[in-house]
Amino acid sequence: MKIEKITKPEQTIVSITRTGLNVTELPKIIGPTFMELGKYISEQGANVLSNPFVSFKNMHETGKLDESQIEMEIGFPVDKRIPEKDLIKAYLLPSYKAMTVLYVGNYDDAMIDIYKQLFEEIKTVGGTFMNCSYEYYLSDEEIDLSKQETIIELPYR
After folding, report:
1. Dist. CA 14–CA 157, nearest whole Å
2. Helix or strand (DSSP H, E) at 8
3. 8 A C-beta contact, residue 114 and residue 105
4. φ, ψ for residue 25, nearest 5 deg
5. CATH number for the domain including 66?
6. Backbone phi and psi for residue 51, each to the nearest 5 degrees, phi listed first
7. pLDDT tens across 13-50, in order?
8. What CA–CA distance (Å, rounded) separates 52 from 151?
9. What's CA 58's distance to the chain center, in Å?
10. CA–CA distance from 2 to each of 21, 89, 99 (Å)?
11. Cβ neighbours of residue 155 under 8 Å, at least 6 residues apart?
12. Of 136, 102, 116, 144, which Cα lies nearest the Cα of 13?
């Protein structure tokens, strides 16, 4: 596993933000939200540019979340700005610096340790964590959990 320092270019995003969620609800919400967004993006004549993501908001500087009050953004980078509709938002995400790593394995097994390592790297470069994370999902749910691939990014300034 190799942690890298990157500068993410600005991206046009289409997403839905959900608030007040319990950690146990996440599996029931993420997949259907990706499907809803994908359908809307297609209906608007836009194209998905890369992998879907979940961004966890309001994270503590240690990386902890209140697992009973999670705020998360579920979305896709797209090739053009499209109209917003109901909960679906479209915006330009500015460029940001981040520590990133490709994690391969079951999401529940080692994710906390991965986040801790990313936080340490941010401290090493004198950065300040921006209280959110991005997880880009490279494999679908049909892949064995031990082989799931997730890119984790922690933005900092």
Report:
1. 24
2. strand 4-8
3. no
4. -85, -20
5. 3.20.80.10
6. -65, 150
7. 999 999 999 989 998 999 999 999 999 999 999 999 99
8. 11
9. 13
10. 31, 33, 10
11. 8, 96, 97, 98, 129, 130, 132, 133, 134
12. 136
Grouping H, G, I as helix, E, B as strand and the rest as coil, residue 121 is: helix
Tally of structural domains, the chain = 1
Separation in Å, CA 129 to CA 40, 53, 74 = 32, 19, 20
Range of the domain at 126: 4-156
Tokens of 71: 């705020």
Helices (H) and strands (E) in the chain, counts: 2, 8
Buried b (16+ CB within 10 A) or exposed e, 88-107: bebeebeebbbbbbebebee
Residues of the chain with pLDDT under 70: none
3-state secondary structure 47-97: CECCCCEEEEECCCCCCCCCCCCEEEEEEEEECCCCCCECCEEEEEECCEE
Whole-number pLDDT of residue 151: 96
36, containing H or E segment: helix 26-43
